[in-house]
Amino acid sequence: MECVHQTIDSAALAGIIELPPNLRNRSVQVIILPVESNTPKEPKREIQFGFLKGIVPPLPDSFFDPLPEEELQTWGL
Question: Residue-wise over 10-40: b if at least 16 C-beta within 10 A, else e?
């Protein structure tokens, strides 16, 4: 991993980051490490619905019927 480190006067960091009082008016070492790449990420592929058609049986219409009161109470609804 490529990095940069340099010793500079803390005044050069004024306006960039808030330094604790004990580091002000001193020489400090700055280390720069990459966190994330700036290269564009490959876009996520769209999910193709229906790719399991014929493999997974379709849901019966009764699947969408309301649940019985006893089942709803079991789930705390």
Answer: eeeeeeeeeeeeeeeeeeeeeeeeeeeeeee
